[in-house]
Amino acid sequence: xxxxxxxxxxxxxxxxxxxxxxxxxxxxxxxxxxxxxxxxxxxxxxxxxxxxxxxxxxxxxxxxxxxxxxxxxxxxxxxxxxxxxxxxxxxxxxxxxxxxxxxxxxxxxxxxxxxxxxxxxxxxxxxxxxxxxxxxxxxxxxxxxxxxxxxxxxxxxxxxxxxxxxxxxxxxxxxxxxxxxxxxxxxxxxxxxxxxxxxxxxxxxxxxxxxxxxxxxxxxx
Length: 221
Fold this sequence. Notes:
The chain is an alpha/beta fold and about 220 residues long. The protein has eleven helices and five strands, in the order βαβαβαβαβααααααα. A five-stranded parallel beta sheet has the order 2-1-3-4-5, sandwiched between helices.
């Protein structure tokens, strides 16, 4: 079973084609958004491989990778992206991805990458595999802390990162606002943050472009 999570239908189709050419009997399941991704992985945690779009809305850079690696350590994950900076690709590998496939890779190259990863080897452009680590100590420590969040805490943190207030998150998740406040207290404790803003900015260290992360609105008690 191979899982594909990408919000672009045309690229999901391209991945399906590449998979079918090298693994004609493979069963493929897809997700087009973050909620679909988490539901899919929860339903099929023993999949052979997850192909995950780095820039899919709601995935937030390396955060989803770190979270999924913590929750499902047996699931191999390969990131795919139109971003092709070597340092970014190296960061992704540093956080536990088994490979990085640039979206400019042709079908034959994607097929080769899939077979190599399914054999248990890492695949990325040669210059990336040979590069030194790109994730610094602070980023790796942030990843370690995020990996300790429960799935619901992680989801709340992601929703806070989009600018939603506690009452809006409570409505979306069908729980009380007090429950969300309790989640936020636990999130801040695990991340070593004093408030929502610090929590989001700390998690933002795992964004594709950390400098672009904006602080959320503070809650009025």
